[in-house]
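Internal tracking record. Fields below are filled automatically when a chain is submitted to the structure queue. Please do not edit lines marked as system-generated. If the sequence contains nonstandard residues, flag them in the REMARKS field before resubmitting.
Queue: standard
Priority: normal
Entity type: single polypeptide chain
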Amino acid sequence: MNILSITPALSRANHLNSINSPVQNKNVTVPKLNTLSKDTVSFSGIGGASSKVSDFLEAQVAADTPRLRRLAITYLDILESVAFRLKDKGFSFDRAYCELNPVKSPKSYSSKIVRSGKFKVPDTIRATLYCNNPYDLDSLNSLLTEMKKRGYVLGTEKMTIKDLMKRGYIPAEEEAKKLDLEKTVPDLDIRLDDVADQVTKLPEELKYSIGKPQKSGYEDIQMRFVRDFDSRKNPVSHELLIVFGPNYSKAKHAESSFIYTPLRELDELHVDLSNKTIGSHSQKASRYIDLIKQMFRGKVSEKLFLNAKNKDLYDLSDSIPISFSETDVNMFENYFSGLNDRVSSVYKEARKAPKITDSEKKQLAKDLRSDKTLLNKVHDNLKKAISHNFNAD
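SYSTEM-GENERATED OUTPUT FOLLOWS
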């Protein structure tokens, strides 16, 4: 396969890319929303600046959207051809579904950059294939072969030695001393349950591509292709997700709307929760966030994905009930009340910092109002999830 083997990332290559690459594909770090400015007590740091960056990026992506849509149409044509070729391997393609959002919207694109702190957005163009036999990794090999015939090869990404070790990589002696060292690997993540024993079916360069399902229970095979002829010229990434079938895709969108998106917004709070000292207001606020995430993943996400998987793979019509008892609702309200109180306490402590200026106090007040608004929004959206009838979808 025409894929780079695991090699140390070269800083010089990064430097050259930063000079020659278009904005949307640079791997440049920008400040995150909740970055604590050095020697200040402001949690937002660059609130206004990040907003301007977001507006600029949205305009840039919007201007490039026609070109990206043309690339996306070609990509969907290729996938349709491949799925037809591999139908005996269990693959199928829903053209109408993939045409709904084949290109990431400018707003979503810029939001992802601000959240991640990097200009590289790997799912600019995206599509989905269904496969009723994804646990047989021979099917994946067949797919990659067919895509290569049509001029699409796996792109690359960077992973640290530490993360690669979680996938079975054995570092050399010098590498073991630098676990944060990055290596270039194929952009493939097999997020399926219990497929580690099939690693021998994969080519040597893909043997460290087996990850784990998401904490929500979500499973898929995720990869990003680039066109072979421009693979060395900072190409556009074409993301592909392989899931079990249409019911799983439907569950993915429901979970994203009702659960994933509200929970992700908790990570966008301005408040600084970096103090992990046991018993501190910061640590307790973080704990409440973890408890809220665990509740909704366990009560909704895991069951939703399991029900969909059973329908697509095993044609089982019976579903595990998804509901919240009165006790669950009360517990949720207690968690959220505790989170609100602890966030307020963190800000209260910050206002007592020595030599705090009036402008810093004003910024803290602004950040607190913003966080309270966000918390109210998240609370209301999660309440909608509690009352939603997922089993009827």
